[in-house]
Amino acid sequence: MLENLYSMNGKICVVTGGSSGLGSYMARGFLEAGAARVYISARSEDKLKAKAVELSALADGECIAIPGDLSAIEGIQVLANTLKENENHIDVLVNNAGVGTGGPFADMKPEVWDMTMGLNLRSPVFVTQALLDLLKANATHEDPARVIFTSSVAASENNVRVMAYATSKNTVEKMTPLLALALCDDHILVNTIAPEAFYSEMTRDIWEDPDSDRFKALLERIPVHRFGGLEDMAGVAVMLCSRAGSYFTGEVLNLDGGHRLTFS
Ligand SMILES: NC(=O)c1ccc[n+]([C@@H]2O[C@H](COP(=O)([O-])OP(=O)(O)OC[C@H]3O[C@@H](n4cnc5c(N)ncnc54)[C@H](OP(=O)(O)O)[C@@H]3O)[C@@H](O)[C@H]2O)c1
Q1: Diameter of the chain by CA atoms?
Q2: Which of 91, 118, 174, 192 has the most CB within a 10 Å radius?
Q3: Residue 168 beta carbon below 6 angstroms from any ligand 1 atom
């Protein structure tokens, strides 16, 4: 039973922001769990294609690059059109591409606010809408399709230095049960993963010097005293998108080493 519970045998998956960090961890998890094809998307074409080659070599399934800027509706349409040309359905969509922004409120620029909301909030909404027909196509009561959003523990923390970022992620979390209810009758389950600090490009300036006071202070604040990595993210993503997770919908899973428990 256990083998089937966590199997993604034959599944067709799409992971935005799949060229590095959390998206690449989830894409790898899906492939190693048996997915037939995992499409990854990001802007930097060379990096994306290199990651697709790297991940394809690790499993029987294929990782396929679809380059594009998902902050623009045109980029979302290119992704949707390419998928429709190649697949008659998809089983899993992970809306993971995101940008981290921060700084004092007094210095906040409208274009940075718009860019943060555009990629972290508007993009996942309209990527999901653009791929809705593909998600519905093979989804059944017994084997529903899955949509995953990537939020952040910042959504729950009152850190004034990341106001736009935290607001964008908090709204993704508010939207999660709404979209879950809206799509339940189409047999599409919608859940969100809210990570704390993970090794990725976004956090490189914190972890690349493990002796820095900043890195040590962050580890001190996280109850399990470590960053998250490949297995932490791949494990939860595979659970949510396999038979094991098929009774979850509208949930926000805090993948944070207990960090939110320390918020007063
Ligand atoms: N790392 C953490 O500790 C952490 C914690 C909480 C939440 N998160 C969330 O996790 C998600 C992934 O972040 P990460 O940490 O893995 O960062 P990352 O390593 O920088 O990866 C970001 C990915 O998104 C892609 N991307 C960025 N802008 C894009 C755009 N306009 N269109 C399409 N793709 C775009 C990037 O590729 P290109 O630059 O080539 O486009 C890359 O593939 C984000 O939503 C982030 O907010 C991360």
Answers
A1: 56
A2: 192
A3: no
